[in-house]
Design a protein that fits this description.
The complex is a heterodimer of chains A (346) and B (45). Chain A is an alpha/beta fold and 346 residues long. Chain A has 11 helices and 12 strands. Chain A folds into 2 domains: 2-167, Rossmann fold (3-Layer(aba) Sandwich), CATH 3.40.50; 222-344, no CATH class. Chain A has helices spanning 33-41, 55-60, 62-76, 90-107, 120-125, 141-156, 164-167, 184-196, 278-282, 290-298, 319-335; strands at residues 2-8, 25-28, 46-53, 80-83, 111-115, 131-133, 226-231, 235-237, 253-256, 268-270, 304-311, 340-344. A 6-stranded mixed beta sheet of chain A has the order 2-3-1-4-5-6, with helices on both faces. In chain A, helix 4 links the parallel strand 4 and strand 5. In chain A, helix 1 (33-41) crosses helix 6. Chain B has a domain at 18-45. The relative contact order of chain B is 0.21. The chains are: A alpha/beta (346), B mainly alpha (45).
């Protein structure tokens, strides 16, 4: 079994945060945790190549990094691709998830990675990938690698993969058909009786839960605040330069409103298939309230209106897109020193 | 709405911070009031 392994700068032995900008490098054979992985996979397994990349580089130059990695992986002709485990490391998890899902899709290789449940990479990639629940403690590396190796062996030999609890991977949100003894009615009644008696029961389907987000503290002084406008109503400059899709949009844009007191109908169009756009077409301020905000800025009610507004289309947009876009927007907004956002939604 | 904080009810889907049924002057008032409510929400909690 030929294996290619991906590690970040820390586990790859380059260094800590100071080496997070390191570009992708190729090492022959196993490195660091890869040596243990190789052992656990058995005597006929060999990590033939290790890819090491700095976490910042992997996130900032993701497309280029993945393109180069795919090239190298193709050359190595592996039977299995493994990334991490990443534990809590967010950038590492995002990079590993992106790389694994691309390798799986483009090269058709079995892939395995490991992350802690809160890793942002899990949010984005739990559905396409088998992500072993690594927990947050890197001291448990060996145990985690053992679970990864186990699952990997099954994937390579195309054996049946058990349920998340059995194999140790994070729930993927997929529904699987199974033959069982009791009918749905019997199972349901059992669950209801258990619930009523205060006994434990296990739901067969768990609705998507949104992790509770603590409310950011209130603005103390509005008159000093830098406020920004965002919309999910798909308002874009005429010509839709960023080609933001009207439905299931994967892109968002940031558009200049410096010196503007009012959004003019002829400068904008709508890329959003979910509402009758005629009113917003007549006057875009009906969606992005620039004119009102300018007035309030002039009157000193707010300190400053940021000179760009962010836009995308929220229509029929799966969480896999919107969670990512939300994070990207938040990064940008933080960099701009914006204090508060008003997001108008259709 | 899915437990989100600081949500202000807009004026319908097709003109969230507007109103196509009133005069332009009245509409400006509608918009201003909604934006002011949003700013209030930012100061609250």
């Amino acid at each position: 079994m030929r294996v290619v392994h991906y590690l970040n700068q820390f586990f790859g032995g380059l260094g800590g945060e100071d080496k997070a900008g390191a570009p992708l490098e190729v090492r022959e054979g196993a490195v660091g945790p890869g040596l243990v992985l190789e052992q656990l996979l058995g005597s006929d397994a060999k990590v033939v190549m290790t890819l090491v990349c700095g976490d910042n580089y992997a996130v900032e130059k993701q497309e280029a990094m993945i393109a180069l990695a795919l090239e190298k992986i193709r050359e190595a002709r592996p039977d299995l691709f493994v990334a991490g485990p990443c534990f809590q490391a967010g950038r590492y998890g995002m990079a590993a998830g992106a790389l694994c899902s691309t390798v799986q899709k483009t090269l058709g290789l079995p892939v395995v990675t490991g992350m802690s449940e809160e890793n942002p990479g899990v949010d984005l990639y739990r559905e396409p990938l088998y992500i072993i629940d690594s927990g947050t403690n890197a001291a448990r590396m060996r145990d985690v690698l053992a679970k990864m190796a186990n699952l990997a062996a099954k994937l390579v030999s195309k054996a049946e993969i058990g349920l998340p609890a059995d194999e140790g991977y994070l729930t993927r949100g997929l529904i699987r058909d199974q033959f069982v003894e009791q009918t749905a009615a019997q199972r349901l009644v059992d669950m209801v009786l258990a619930k009523v008696k205060g006994e434990p029961f296990e739901s067969e389907m768990v609705p998507t839960a949104f992790a509770p987000i603590p409310m950011p503290p209130a603005l103390k002084d509005l008159s000093k605040a830098k406020v920004m406008l965002i919309t999910d109503g798909g308002l874009v400059p005429k010509g839709n330069p960023d080609k933001i899709q009207g439905s299931a949009a994967t892109r968002w844009g940031s558009y200049k409103i410096e010196g503007c007191d009012d959004l003019k109908a002829e400068d904008y169009e709508i890329s959003h298939g979910g509402y009758d756009p005629q009113f917003v077409r007549q006057d875009p301020d009906r969606l992005v309230p620039l004119d009102a905000m300018r007035e309030l800025e002039r009157e000193g009610v707010i300190g400053k209106l940021h000179d760009e507004f962010i836009s995308t289309s929220g229509l029929a947009n799966p969480l896999s897109n919107t969670r990512r876009m939300g994070r990207e927007m938040a990064e940008r907004i933080k960099q701009l020193g914006v204090d508060a956002v008003i997001l108008t939604s259709t | 709405m899915v437990g989100s904080n600081r949500t202000v009810l807009g004026n319908g889907i097709v003109h969230v911070v507007g109103d196509a049924n009133v005069s332009p002057e009245q509409e400006k008032e509608v918009r201003r009031k909604l934006v002011e409510k949003a700013l209030e929400a930012l100061k609250s909690g």
